[in-house]
Design goal:
Blueprint lengths: L1 H37 L14 H13 L10 H4 L1 H10 L2 E6 L2 E6 L2 H9 L12 H7 L8 H14 L2 H5 L2 H10 L3 H14 L3 H20 L25 H10 L5 H16 L6
Antiparallel strand pairs: 1-2
Helix pairs in contact: 9-10, 10-13, 11-13, 12-13
Amino acid sequence: MMIIILTSFLFISLLVILVRIVKKLLWTPFHVQFMMRSQGIQGPSYKFLHGNFKEIVEIKKESINKAMDHLSHDIFPRILPHIFSWKKLYGPNFLYWYGLQPELVMTEPELLKEILSNRNNNYPKMDLEGFTKKLFGDGVLTSIGEKWVKMRKLANHVFHGESLKSMIPVMIMSCETMLGVGRFMKIKKLKTAFGSSYSEGKNIFQMLMKLASLMSGNASKVRFPGIREEEKIGEDHNFGSDFLGKLLEAYQDNKISIEDIVDECKTFYFAGHETTTIL
């Protein structure tokens, strides 16, 4: 009798597990795909387990191995060849699969305008997880709700037009010492936000870019810890008028934590390298 009960329990458990696996790997993707297509959103068909990942890899490999005919600023077909190809094939809005994760691509200006305005919070920010969140932190770029309002208010105060006027001498000095156009953006961001020189921030830039490169190359393989720094705040309350100074001042007033300071530094160091417009 006991053997029959154990056998039945094992059979039911295996059946439940099998149903969940089938639902996750087959039913849900095909259901999502069917619902999107019923609304006119086409795209490459979902493939078991990998979605369209293999197609993406093949298209990117083909694009990289193909020499450019001439130098051009129109590099979209080269850096995102799968998006470029599928846009021509399926239209401005389409759905594709990155493994089990559906990715909805929209390129219509009016839709993008509605999404980016996001006045009714219908389009929340992407929820970063794991090593990606450790890399970018939870600063003004990724935070939401009250924390975003608090951090954005600090940034607004420092980067307001009147506040930036006092930074003009620093920007002029940065321009005079710049060695290239790309470096100029980094210098200006560093001096304006953190009051440091390019040489002082160069090592941090290199570490962050190396970490970003590792993250990109190992996204589907292994996880690794992000950068974490501990700062000790002294008793001197004269932190300066730059962004870092305002962050330290807010920390001194118990408005933000050390983690918030580190996250904001990550955000603006990355912004100095790849200027973003979604802040």
